Amino acid sequence: MEIVFETHAWSLDNDRGIATGWLPGRLSERGRRPAAELGERRRDDGIAAVFSSDLARAAETASLAFGDTGVPVLHGWRLRECDHGELNGAPAAEVHAGRARYLDRPYPGGESWRQAVHRAGRFLADPPPRWSDARVLVIGHVATRWAFGHLIDGRPLEELVDADFGWREGWEYRLT
After folding, report:
1. For a FRET experiment, which of 9, 59, 79, 109 has its CA 20 to 30 Å from that of 145?
2. Which residues span the domain enclosing 26?
3. Angstrom distance (rounded) from CA 61 to CA 16
4. Does the annotation count 96 as an active-site position?
5. Helix (H, G, I), strand (E, B) or coil at 18
6. Where along the chain is substrate bound (predicted)?
């Protein structure tokens, strides 16, 4: 299976400098156009199905990008962002400045980054056989990208947690 990973589009919380975590979030006006452009960019890219986090900002990205294409869009909780627990909705600078501390220790009332990566990574065993030889798109979050980087590419989480996210138009992975 070929996996194309894209992050959800820019959200209202991104505008406000908030770490949304497991809160639903909504796309901002700044994010709605790139979500539509994602669909335009990927429609003729051989995408057989779209798998999206069930959090509203990712689901809205998937809907704007693929809602009128006939490409199946499936939502799953495993593709969610890390649950920052009591820090869901806190200032992003506060949450992300200390994220290495939460690599193996859960955020208060939430989960650790390692737990989030393994949860998101369980998605890799789930796509139905219908798409096992297909090219699929996954719309998710930092935890989703780290799961793929760690579990498919073999990058250590200690390296990923300290690296800049480095947004771009998609990352590609191959599951064998």
Report:
1. 109
2. 2-174
3. 19
4. no
5. strand
6. 20-21, 57
For 77, the token pair is: 């909780």
Tokens representing residue 93 in the block: 């600078």
Marked catalytic residue, from 6, 8, 111, 141: 8
Q: Identify the active-site residue in 81, 84, 111, 150.
A: 81
For 112-139, give the DSSP string: -HHHHHHHHHGGGG-S-GGGTTSEEEEE
What CATH number has the domain bearing residue 130? 3.40.50.1240
Say how far apart CA 164 and CA 162 lie, in whole Å.
7
Answer yes or no: is 99 a known binding residue: no
On whether 57 is known to bind a ligand per the annotation, the reply is yes
Q: What is the pLDDT of residues 128-142, one digit of tens each?
A: 678 888 999 999 999
pLDDT, tens digit, 9 for 90 and up, residues 45-65: 999 999 999 999 999 999 999
Q: Is the pLDDT of residue 164 over 80?
A: no
Query: pTM higher than 0.85, yes or no?
Result: yes
Contact in structure between 5 and 173 (CB atoms under 8 Å): yes
